[in-house]
Each structure stands twice: as C-alpha cells, then as structure tokens.
Amino acid sequence: MPESATDELNVGVLMFIPYRAMEQRVFDALAAAGYADITVAQARLVQRLGPDGTRLTLLAEQAQVTKQTAGFLVDQLERAGYVERVPDPADGRARLVRLTERGEAVTALANRTVAAVEAEWREVLGERTMNQLRRALTKLREHTDPFR
C-alpha cells in the first residue's frame, strides 16, 4: 500500500482493481439472472474451459490449483448443471469437462456483461487509450501466461 498520497500503487494492483470491479459486475448480473450459486473459484475454472472441453489435469494446471481442487470444483459445477464430463475423442481413457446448455447460457451472460463494462471503460479512457491498453496487456500476457 502507498505510504502517502503521493506514492503510486504498483501496476499489479492497478490492473487487479479494475479486474475485480468487472468480476463483481459479472457476479451481480449472474445473481440477478438466477445464477447465484456460482462461486469465484468455479468461475475461474470455467474461464479456462476450451470450446470443445478441457481435461481436468489441464484445467487444474491453468487455474493453478491441485487436481483434487479442480475435481471438487468440477463436481460442484456438474451437480449444478453447468458442466458435464464426456469421453475425449482423442483418447478413450480420458474425459473432457465441457459446458452444458446451462453453462453456455451463463457464460453468454457473463460475456455480455464483460462487453458492457469494456464499453464503459472505452468511454472513460477514449478509443485510442483503450486500444493501447488492450495492446499493452496482450503483450504482457505473451510474456507472463504460459497457457496463452
């Protein structure tokens, strides 16, 4: 934390604060639409699901949680009807976790909310600055995200 009003917050905190605000807006929208049973931990796992599904071990690795934790979260999401486990066509012994119709509906709502927040940010920052921000963060992702 800054020691005085003239000290600056570090860049990580400056990125986290708007992310957390966006995340809260998404959860508020989900709750208002009747999806109040989704936790932050579950949502962060769902964010890592590929369009055709993802193996549990890869989900755990990408979410930086143990395989047991990922399995527990997937069990919860499966009971709530958001995901299902299906055979992996590339390996009959393996299973993929993929969204169900209910999971796709909640994801679509979350994505619409994110788009609305980004539109607000674009108004606040202006087109040019928002585009610069996106380019800068994309470049940082290339440097920091091994799962890009």
Short description:
The chain has 148 residues and is mainly alpha-helical. 63% of the residues lie in helices and 11% in strands.
What is the end-to-end distance? 30 Å
> Count of helical segments?
6
Q: What is the percentage of strand-forming residues? A: 5-15%
Q: Strand count, sense and closure of the main sheet? A: 3 strands, antiparallel
Integer average pLDDT: 93
Oligomer: single chain
| Strand adjacency order, main sheet | 1-3-2
- SSE class: mainly alpha
Tell me how many strands there are. Answer: 3
CATH class equals Mainly Alpha
Could you tell me the radius of gyration in angstroms?
Answer: 18 Å
| CATH fold name | Arc Repressor Mutant, subunit A
Keywords: DNA-binding, Transcription, Transcription regulation
Protein name: DNA-binding MarR family transcriptional regulator
Domain HTH marR-type: 8-142
Organism: Nocardia bhagyanarayanae
Question: What does the secondary structure layout of this molecule look like, with pairings?
Answer:
Blueprint: H1 11-32, H2 40-46, E1 54-55, H3 56-63, H4 67-79, E2 83-88, E3 91-99, H5 101-125, H6 127-144
Antiparallel strand pairs: 1-3, 2-3
Kindly describe this structure:
The protein is mainly alpha-helical and 148 residues long. The chain has a single domain (11-144), classed as Arc Repressor Mutant, subunit A, CATH 1.10.10. It has six helices and three strands, in the order H-H-E-H-H-E-E-H-H. It has helices spanning 11-32, 40-46, 56-63, 67-79, 101-125, 127-144; strands spanning 54-55, 83-88, 91-99. A three-stranded antiparallel sheet has the order 1-3-2. Helix 3 (56-63) packs across helix 4.
